[in-house]
């Protein structure tokens, strides 16, 4: 099928190459033979009058022209998929849709159990693929490689629609045997104690509390760095270390882990709002609308966490 001289099948090949950066993997992803994919690369180069890719080992490195085409091509293919190929009505009870969701371990533990359970009742064949936050969250949304992103609203871009889910605050936690937490925790003592801190992504993006301290020119003593909030409590066991985690998670984990909680000596205990974001092209997608409605309804049923005594 040609459109103004361009074989539209080549756009599918270009999108696969931009995603996989490897001829063999790209060919496999769209069910082409490797010779057929190599031929598609040659035709793409001829049509666009650009090399499009250079080789670095076995990896294809896109040229500026290819990078400029990538977003438009992916959006065009997604638009066809959502409005033409997948335009049939969405029936949860009969759907086998897999929702790919970027979500932290914190939200998974305190919120998603109810989502998965409700989906089991209403849409038994629907499944979930949870992915940890990365440095490429916005790119994954733009390319339609994930359906939903759930993060504190402050970390989201304005490039895609979003809506709020629930609020939380931070709390300081330590082992139940930590006697240093029996006294009121002052800001200076908080800074001087050994911390287990959380950082996210390949470039180790900071947690909310560390961002606050850096913005105000203060520094705490960090003994251990982990890549998820739920990994903090095990690193506190039988030590005088402390950690800073969301209150809802602290109360959830305290049911099975010997934790003690004290108020965080930082302004208003660092409140934040968890929100859900989705690709702009999915705004009217029936399956996405259904899942977003479930998220909103279940979030509205969440009770406020109890204050730390």
- CATH class call of the largest domain: Alpha Beta
Which structural category fits the helices and strands? Answer: alpha/beta
The averaged pLDDT comes out at 87
How would you name the CATH homologous superfamily of the largest domain? Answer: Periplasmic binding protein-like II
CATH 2nd-level architecture of the largest domain: 3-Layer(aba) Sandwich
Radius of gyration based on Cα positions: 24 Å
Terminus-to-terminus distance: 68 Å
Description:
By secondary structure, the protein is an alpha/beta fold. The chain folds into three domains: 2-85, Winged helix-like DNA-binding domain superfamily/Winged helix DNA-binding domain (Arc Repressor Mutant, subunit A, Orthogonal Bundle); 92-161 and 276-300, D-Maltodextrin-Binding Protein, domain 2, CATH 3.40.190; 170-270, Periplasmic binding protein-like II (D-Maltodextrin-Binding Protein, domain 2, 3-Layer(aba) Sandwich). 38% of the residues lie in helices and 23% in strands. The protein is built from ten helices and 15 strands. The strands form four sheets. Strands 9, 10, 11, 12, 13 and 14 form a six-stranded mixed sheet that branches. A five-stranded mixed sheet has the order 6-5-7-15-8, covered by helices on one side. Strands 1-2 form a two-stranded antiparallel sheet. The longest helix is centred in the N-terminal third of the chain and has 22 residues, at 64-85. The protein is elongated. The termini are far apart.
């Amino acid at each position: 099928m040609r459109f103004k001289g361009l074989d539209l099948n080549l756009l599918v090949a270009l999108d696969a190459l931009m995603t996989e950066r490897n001829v063999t993997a790209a060919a496999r992803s769209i069910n082409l033979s490797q010779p057929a994919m190599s031929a598609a690369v040659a035709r793409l180069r001829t049509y666009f009058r650009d090399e499009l890719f250079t080789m670095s080992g076995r990896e294809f490195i896109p040229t500026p022209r290819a990078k400029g085409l990538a977003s438009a091509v992916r959006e065009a293919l997604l638009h066809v998929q959502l409005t033409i190929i997948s335009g049939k009505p969405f029936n949860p009870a009969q759907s086998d849709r897999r929702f790919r969701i970027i979500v932290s371990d914190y939200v998974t533990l305190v919120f998603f159990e109810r989502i998965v359970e409700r989906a089991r009742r209403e849409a038994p064949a629907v499944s979930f693929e949870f992915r940890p936050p990365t440095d490429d969250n916005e790119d994954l949304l733009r390319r339609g490689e994930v359906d939903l992103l759930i993060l504190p609203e402050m970390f989201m871009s304005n490039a895609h629609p979003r809506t709020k889910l629930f609020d939380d605050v931070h709390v300081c936690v330590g082992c139940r045997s930590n006697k240093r937490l029996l006294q009121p925790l002052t800001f200076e003592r908080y800074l001087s104690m050994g911390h287990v801190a959380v950082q996210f992504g390949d470039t180790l993006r900071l947690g909310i509390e560390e961002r606050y301290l850096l913005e105000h020119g203060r520094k705490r003593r960090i003994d251990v760095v982990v890549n998820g909030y739920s990994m903090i409590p095990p690193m506190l066991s039988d030590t005088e270390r402390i950690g800073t985690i969301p209150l809802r998670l602290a109360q959830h984990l305290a049911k099975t882990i010997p934790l003690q909680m004290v108020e965080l000596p930082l302004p208003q205990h660092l409140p934040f709002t968890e929100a859900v974001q989705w690709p702009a092209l999915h705004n009217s997608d029936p399956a996405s609308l259904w899942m977003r409605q479930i998220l909103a309804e279940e979030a509205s049923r969440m009770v406020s966490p109890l204050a730390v005594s």
